Amino acid sequence: xxxNQNQYQDLAGKxxxxxxxxxxxxxxxADKLSQAGAQxxxxxxxxxxxxxxxxxxxxxxxTQPQQVDQLAQAINERFGGLDILIDNIGGVTAPGGGFxxxxxxxxxxxxxxxxxxxxxxxxxxxxxxxARKSGxxxxxxxxxxxxxxxxQNMAYAVSKAGLNxxxxxLSTELAPQGIRVLTVSPGATNTPLMQQLIQKxxxxxxxxxxxxxxxxxARVGGIPMGRMAEPKEVASLVxxxxxxxxxxxxxxxxxxxxxxxxVV
Length: 264
Description:
The chain is of the alpha/beta class. It has helices at about 5, 25-35, 65-80, 105-130, 150-175, 190-205, 210-220, 230-240; strands at about 15-20, 40-45, 55-60, 85, 135-140, 180-185, 255. It is built from 8 helices and 7 strands, in the order αβαββαβαβαβαααβ.
């Protein structure tokens, strides 16, 4: 019987980029792909605090077109292009409160961060995949893209819904060229950012962190599994979709939500 290490080498010889790969879900994905044998590049706006990184790091603000071009050039020159692109950056930057709380600037910031950054990075790195007629692109979206909460994340939800539609359209265009495009939509996930959000809300409400989380979950209909996802659980799905085991999968959006979305 093969050892676990040998079983996890199905990405050997592949080069992957994980945006936002220094913490949370992105870090878990980068580590998982590396365990599977891939050479992993990570990017974020600022260099992480760790002095010894497990992956090759390139600083880039993907909301800035020039920095996206510079990142793509560095990857193409040093690594000869990519086999796997994980568009993971994103987050809520706009306030809650519904439509009247959102200015044009809020909408533009949310679209830049959660939609246009992925679009411009795909555009910059796709030519080498097309030339090889091979590649996998995975967009990390959000359950908010299919279940928006108007008082909490309206602009974010709209930007992620746009990412979902773009991902589907791109998958249809690129499938005949040997490139698979998929979407993964996590729900509440136990990341440092989520913990900060819960602790801040708990301090205001006077409840414990667990009580605060359950209260937040109840407002959106509850999580049937009763807990948040762990980053490694999202990473396991992303790894599978990037691997040869998923070679016939493209165009789909996979929810990692503990059952929160009440649709078939």
